[in-house]
Fold:
Amino acid sequence: MKHYLGIGLAVLLVGASSGAMGAPPPRAVDPDWPCIQPLVPTLSAGMLWSGPPIETAGDWHAEPRVAALVARIGPRKVPAAEGEAAIAEFLKSLGADRDRLSALAFAGLLDESNRQRGEVIERLKELAQRQRKIADIVADLTTQMDALPVSSLGGNPAPGGADPVAAEPSGEEAAHARDLNERWTYVSRTHTEMQRTMRYICEVPVQIDSRLGTYARALMAQ
Structure:
């Protein structure tokens, strides 16, 4: 039993140290970042935008048409294709102020994307911290199980020179061992489920970035 526990603990601790999807790349500087994807805390306009300057365009909140577009296509549940169609409709309604308003539209979508990314990043960091604590609990339970006393029947060898046959533990010892094993199983399962959750959530910032890039190209293409 100890042998299998040791293997299981090794797997769990490797998972905890490597995060949701493997060892963090050299560019990751936050110890709480659990994803293989490099941590980019905030997107900047220069990463995706080469259209009219947004620095001098003004406040996108002050433009009702821009604010309405951001509210319409900014949420993550909106498909990118639907957002592109809304952008095309938005741009057709613009007149001579098209360049400034398109820049403001990107600025608004950038702000909304960074807000969403920030929430997801904080969630991932919280999960990483919890996962480390769970790995510590698994290690502690394993140590306790390995330390359980093992009784034997005398010291007489079994026929053929085999090792003495181990006796069944006492009722109290057996109950304690069962309790430890149940707790170990539950905590290990929690650790595994958390890893799966993090693998899924690690993809969310990438999806947000991709959709914002689609929106930026649609705004610049028009």
About this structure: The longest helix spans residues 98-146. The chain has one domain: 2-147+170-221. Residues 1-26, 151-167 have pLDDT under 50 and may be disordered. Residues 2-147+170-221 form one domain.
